[in-house]
Amino acid sequence: MSRNQKLYSTRRLVDAARERGHEVQVIDHLRCYMNIASHKPAVHYKGKPLSGFEAVIPRIGASATFYGTAVLRQFEMTGVFPLNESVAISRSRDKLRSLQLLSRRGIGMPVTGFAHSPDDTDDLLALVGGAPVVIKLIEGTQGVGVVLAETTQAAESVIEAFRGLHANFLVQEFITEARGADIRAFVIGNRVVAAMRRQAKEGEFRSNLHRGGSAQVVRLTPEERSTAIRSARIMGLNVAGVDLLRSNHGPVVMEVNSSPGLEGIEAATGKDVAGMIIAFIESNARPGKTRTRGTG
Domains of the chain: which residue ranges? Predict the structure, then answer.
């Protein structure tokens, strides 16, 4: 499931699957439509029902989460094995919900606040230790909608602007000691198969590679490795990109990504991550082997 078969990650997964003798079809999930009849649920695409698939690899962008997971859920109801389940993808895409779940299970995170009323601004900033703070739109992705407010006045201005747009947002402590770097740990199943350190370009605090950041292979500590694996498991994801910061009090999780890109991690580490994903599917894909069957 991908909206653009020319994307690096999609091409690599297709090539890796075909190299191992599998038949692959790339479908645009936004062009799918569904028959939700209880006796014979089905997914249709370009005028024909989709059938005969043993597994589905969801590459659902953040803007298409609602409809994309609905299509994936329909595949799950027909017994097709999903690389990542619809429930797990929805859970990880909700920034607030995912942080609450990680917090409940004792995963280290930056101190985070969430509020709605403008009367709460001062106390909200105090809860996270005051400026500098990072302010994030709940719906943002790839660094979009993420602002570093270095002073209290700047934070109040950003919060006021976001509230004026009726946007939901989080306020988090800024991990100064990370120095503009984070770690992407790529988890498949119950192990970290690759990891890279991403460094933001000069004058930028977001380390996303498409924003000019650089990447290099990194060796994780046992605690970082354990944190990444546990975070993916808490979300219910078989494959995840877990973003970590190295803080003075150990690794803290920024985000658990359900559709992690392959280009940066493969280039930085030289590892065939796409092949590892296909190997995982080969070992685990069985008809009906879905924890929730689309009902969670």
Answer: 1-109+176-296, 112-174
Q: Which residues contact 276 (CB under 8 A, 6 or more apart)?
A: 188, 193
Q: List alpha helices for the chain, DSSP H.
A: 8-19, 65-77, 86-93, 95-104, 121-127, 152-164, 222-235, 263-269, 273-284
Note the CATH number of domain 1-109+176-296.
Answer: 3.30.470.20
Residue 252: closest CA among 182, 202, 199, 179: 182
What 3-state DSSP class applies to 191?
strand
- CA 65 from centre of chain: 11
Q: Is the dihedral of CA 78, 229, 99, 271 positive or negative?
A: negative
pLDDT of residue 211: 54
- Give per-residue pLDDT as tens, 203-241: 555 555 555 567 899 999 999 999 999 999 999 999 999
Question: Which structure tokens are listed for 227?
Answer: 């944190």
Q: What is the pTM of this model?
A: 0.87
Residue 199: how many CB atoms within 10 A of its CB? 16
CATH superfamily for domain 112-174 = ATP-grasp fold, A domain (3.30.1490.20)
Asked whether the beta carbons of 20 and 282 are under 8 A apart, the reply is yes
Q: In the block, which residue shows the tokens 């350190």?
A: 197
